Structures are given as structure tokens and as C-alpha cells.
Amino acid sequence: QKRVIRYEAVVSTQSTGEVIQRANDTEFGLAAAVCTQNLSRAYRVISKLEAGSCNINTYNAYPEYIPFGGYKNSGMGRELGEECLNYYSQTKSVYVETGDPWCPFE
Predict the structure, then answer these.
(1) Residues pairing with 34 in the sheet
(2) Which residues contact 58 (CB under 8 A, 6 or more apart)?
(3) CB atoms inside a 10 Å sphere around CB 23
(4) Can you name the residues that pair with 53 across neighbouring β-strands?
(5) Residue 28's beta-bridge partner residues?
(6) Residue 8 pLDDT > 70, yes or no?
(7) Strands 31-34, 28-29: parallel, antiparallel or unpaired by DSSP?
(8) Nearest 5°: CA angle at 31, between 27 and 17?
(9) Predicted TM-score of the model (pTM)
(10) How many CB atoms lie within 10 A of CB 30?
């Protein structure tokens, strides 16, 4: 099994578009991080990154209640959080009438 780890430092002379394009130019998308004092810019950039687990002003911080998983060839599904429970569950709807029963098959 091949494991690819890619770290990139981005210099401040690059445009935001160039940064996003470089970050997304991979077949993998497990995690990404943006470090900046401008939070609105961080949210804007993170929303365009093709990565499943993202951090702002930190890296590799995944509390147990936040779903963790990747995009593209970095796996499918999610670990941790409610998303993980949904993977092992199947929804069933049941409606119960508590008034007089009505059955068309009688």
C-alpha cells in the first residue's frame, strides 16, 4: 500500500486562487489547514479546498465529536462523531396511529 504525505508551505506572494489550485492538485484529500489572522479569508479558502478534514490556525486537531475522513482517494466514509454512527445505521420510519385503527386489508 502506497502512503503519500504532502506538506506545502505557501509564500505570501501567491494569490488565493493559486494557493487553492496547488492544494487541490492531487488525487488525495485527507486534511488541510489554513493559518491566518483573517478568519473570513480562512473560511473562504477552506470551503474551496478538496479535503475532508480541515483546520484553521491549528493542525491535526480532531476532537472525538467531529467527523474525520478524506475526499478523493483518501478513503470513503467518516470516523468519529455522529457521521460515523450513520455509516453503521439504516434509517427506518415507523408511524403509529394512536386513534381508531384503520386497516384497508380487513
Answers:
(1) 56
(2) 33
(3) 20
(4) 31
(5) 72
(6) no
(7) unpaired
(8) 70
(9) 0.65
(10) 19
DSSP β-bridge partners for residue 29: 71
State the Cα–Cα distance between residues 28 and 8, nearest whole angstrom. 14
The C-alpha atoms of residue 5 and residue 17 are separated, in whole angstroms, by 22
Grid cell, residue 60, equals 491535526
Q: How many residues does the chain have?
A: 106
Mean pLDDT across the chain: 79
- Quote the DSSP letter at residue 21: H
**Which residue type does 49 have?**
L
**Residue pair 83/67 in contact by the 8 Å Cβ criterion:** yes
CA distance 46 to 100: 54
Query: Which grid coordinates are listed for 91?
Result: 434509517
